[in-house]
Write the structure tokens for this entry.
Amino acid sequence: MSLDPATLLAILAMAAATYLTRVAGLVFARYIPATGRVRAALDALPTAVLVAVIAPAASAGPAEIVATALTVLAATRLPVLGVVAVGVGSVVVMRALVE
Amino acid sequence: MGKLRRMLVDASHPMTHETPPSSPVEDLRAGFIQILPLTIACVPFGLILGANAAAKGLSVIEVTLMSALVFAGSAQFVAIDLWQDPAPWAALGLTVLLVNLRHVLMGASLAGKLDRFGTLGRSIAVFFMADEIWAVAERRAIERGLTPAFYLGAAAPLYLNWLVTTTIGAAVGALVADPRALGFDFAFTAVFIGLVAGFWKGRSSLPVVVASAAAAIAVRHAVPGGWFVVAGALAGIGVAALRAGDAETGGGKAVLRAEADRSSTP
């Protein structure tokens, strides 16, 4: 059990950054336009960010690419637990096959 | 996922609170029930994050503290991926800021639905605004109105589960010889694919996904750090903005429209 000062500082910076993004919406809600290009861009933001976060891992190799395709297919018809089961199961099988 | 999609579409309509108010205990229970499947889905994700963090040299108490104070799965995941010793706090803080920028939009959407919370309550509620909690809170706001009891019922299980699973992952991570062989690392990707499905708005979403993925992958290979998230996000929203000029968006799908309308008529 140890708490490194540099690690503690990093954790506090991460915590501050996260809270800042979460509380900022309460402050800025009134300034967000209701129509137009800015509106369309903001509407697309959740999808764009979520995809950006996972894209490198989802395309890391042949096994991951196939597993991603199967997981996307699962996401069109299954609840999230089923999606995770398909994702984890398919990546295990695909890695066993190609690696 | 269909429900979540409907929720995002319906968010353009003024909220109606016609349903008779339910008791705090009922709301607490409803929140718990709605977050339960998402909580279970996060178990492997928490374990692998804890194990990855331990592999990078973080102690168990450091992992617990990070989960308790940051409570942002994807951001923690990316940060641990970039972790070095000693921890580059500025780079990690900036990376987390970039990965979490979407919360500004999510918080703006939720802001108009927290009318039953006090100022302090709002400030506390947004601390727990992880993607999963935000999603069930948004849905509840449209169906019955969002109460602090419901929010607590939804936030507490996911938060405690996150503390426990990341801590266990850090403590026993070394015992799992190869987490990759169990596919645990891919659980994170799968959860996010499920969340993207919830935001899906039909074919208009496809160019956003393609642009975001292509930019993120290219920048991930070329530039160290969390910039690939920014590049992908900018590419995706850039495409959305360009396309909005071709065909009027109609605004009906806007998540924030109800709030924007409210604030324009003080």
Summary: Chain B touches chain A through 117 residues (CB under 8 Å). Residues 148-172 of chain B form the longest helix (25 residues).
